[in-house]
Amino acid sequence: MTEATKKAAELLKNYDGEKIRIMEVCGTHTHEIFRHGIRNLLSDKIELISGPGCPVCVTPAGFIDEAVELALEHNVTICTFGDLVRVPGSEMSLAGARAKGARIQTVYSPQDAEKYAVEHPDEEVAFLSVGFETTTPSSCIAVKNAEADGISNFSLLTANKTMPGAYSAMADHTDVYLYPGHVHTITGLKDCEDMLAKGMSGVIAGFTPSELLTALAIAVKKFGEGKPFLVNAYPRVVTGKGSPEAMALVDKYMQPCDAEWRGIGVIENSGRELREEYAGFDAAKKFNITRTSGRSNPGCRCGEILKGQCKPHECPLFGKVCTPEHPVGACMVSNEGTCSAYYQFG
Amino acid sequence: MTETVTLAHGAGGKQTSELIEKVFKEHFSNEFFTADDAAILPRPNGRIAMTTDGFIVSPAFFNGGNIGKLSICGTVNDLSCMGARPLYLTCGFVIEEGFEMDKLKEIAAAMAETAAKVGVRIVAGDTKVAGKGQVDGVFITTTGVGELIEGANTSGALARPGDAIVVTGDVGRHGTCILLARDDYGIEADVKSDCAPLWHPVEAAITKVGDIHVVRDATRGGVGTVLYEITKESGVGVKLCASDIPVADEVRGVTGMLGLEPLYLACEGRLVIILPEEKADKLIEVLKEFPDTAGAAKIGVITEENRGRVIMETEIGTQTILPQPGNELLPRIC
After folding, report:
1. Which ipTM value was assigned to this complex?
2. How many domains does chain B have?
3. Does A208 touch chain B (CB under 8 A)?
4. Both B31 and B144 in a single domain?
5. A274-314 residue pLDDT tens
6. Backbone angles phi, psi at A264, to 5 degrees
7. Could you tell me if residue A134 is inside a domain?
8. Across the interface, which of B318, B324, B326 has its CB nearest the CB of A36?
9. How far is the CA of A41 from the CAs of A18, A205, A217, B201, in angstroms?
């Protein structure tokens, strides 16, 4: 541990100022904070809230229903990140659909899904395109590849989301944001500057223990000064302009849309969908899927957990009927989910 | 044309004899290896240990070994964990129709070489051929018999608070190697499996160091799973020091990229050894004399508190729980 990190840790341990709520918006931050035991080190005047930054956790039950419909009623092969397979839909998860004969392929990138479509010309293949600014460009590359390969059996079922809408929706629930370093590697600092203009403070954080401790210490110190602030504590990766290439790529293929966030509701302009000229690659349009909200278990408090209004152990299902082996709420499914982290490290 | 295994090779007739003659007898030949219905063996001196294990790894050939080597290491190491000198092995093959004969020879050669390394004799075997698609390549089951040496008294239930926990080398290699060999991730890295037979280091630990409480080989579930098993069987807690856990840079790189915990990735040549703290340095000194355990390191201690839990002291001085072993990361790893 370097001297600077030691100093940051001391500051966080001994903080005795006004109570401060810090929301880590990124699922990877949540996981790393737990994995390194950072919560155990903080003064009880510092509250960490795990925000809506795990793509699996904010994917609504209706999206799973749509994927199940594609697989079972339209005989479409579903390619997906592994985490989504066990997320409960209204009636069943994709694992449940697989047991009924659906073809569900786990892939590690959208490009792999496109490759699968090339190799299986007799199958219709849809990739479940979830994720934030960091993963959306990759989905767009898959569409670009499909265009180049001249295939027509590949499409995306989109539920891509963007962060700024979520930041605004969460503004009442936190004093300072710990901004996700990966997202702002792509989008640069503009969204954070817009939040600053609205009076919201934030620190852009990296992912190693010392980067996290440093970012948290900056948040606490600056908070004490009483003025809104924005600090880029991940300058080795995040630059002011981000990656214009990635943003241009997304802009070419996708346009903003309203999006439903599980447990939070619809946030205006917080999603991305394929543009009209790429409708042939849009699974919902191609197969005429009705987009629904779906139903979640009424006892599940994932929505409040995502807003920091309740802790996982205050949910009546947590650890009893809802466990990583049998998740009821989405926050229990992904490794990066708040409930999963509390369950595993709690 | 490439010579392959056919259904006739498994029918029990002339071609079966040919297969045994050409492939197995050539490699496994020793004074006890039999063509009769059962091998006749001299009675061992002390108590005997006996174990069996099936191997279905995919792919069958990987960086650092193949299914043949693995099938000997797995059973030899299970015997070794109990302090039993491996004496005799039997092996059962289920081979897919169309499997290349040269590959089968290579597998048999690896088995013979690995067995010779620890002085264990392959004394009997069985070969079945299954139709195309009924098995994937080749599956092997080995059964082993060993004799307990003097001073051997190990069990997962014998860990005591204050004991030191030693691993015999860097963790997570075999799992990472198989994961890369399957080419699912499009990641290129040079990770060699740790697959190795470990009788000699265990023998040295028991005879030269002594008072060894637990020896477990970390296979499918990795070192993390073994430690959780021991906390339950011995009714104790475990405290690890994150910065002391040996992980090869290339393994750390791959697992970091994929969000996997090296402690939960399979090993095929790593033991967890638990013994009184004051003997840990001596054990490590002894283990370092063997190439397959040269990377031995103390990674933590057994504790009275936190029963049933594995606590990790992190690099920033905080304490956190090593999450319980979860769903299987990768099927068909061994």
Report:
1. 0.71
2. 2
3. no
4. yes
5. 999 999 999 999 999 977 777 778 888 888 887 778 889 99
6. -110, -35
7. yes
8. B318
9. 18, 18, 12, 41
